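Long-time lurker. I teach an intro course on protein structure, and each term I like to show students one example going from raw sequence to a predicted 3D structure in token notation. This year I'd like something fresh instead of my usual example. Would anyone be willing to generate the tokens for the chain below so I can use it in lecture? Attribution to the forum is fine with me.
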Amino acid sequence: MPVVTFAVEGRDNCVVLGDDSYVYARTEHGSFVLATKCPHRGGPLNLASFEEGGRGNRLVCPWHERATSVTKAIRAGIPAVRHGDRVTAVLPEPGQGSYELQHRPLSPALRADV
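-- Reply from a regular --
Happy to contribute to a lecture. Here you go:
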């Protein structure tokens, strides 16, 4: 499993491993490393909106409005530690074993000051 350090925001805020990519997300309910693809249809969760309600706090995919629980994402999340403007995470092993850093825009819902 690769241990990768990347930016919390801005340039190089996304780690790409094969077909998977990850960003650091911050909500008022917690911080976590988030897979950028919606598990339903692969929509860009890095652009998700935030929904509070009776069913809990959820990230809503911008493509088809399917919601993903923030609590589940935090609990089942990728081990990560933030230090200043960098985060170090232990990511799942990609097929090729290499990664690259890229930029992905983040919705305001994922940039909360926590």
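Some talking points for your students: Strands lie at 3-7, 14-17, 20-27, 30-35, 49-51, 58-60, 67-69, 80-83, 86-90, 100-102. Residues 3-110 form a domain with the Rieske Iron-sulfur Protein fold (CATH 2.102.10).
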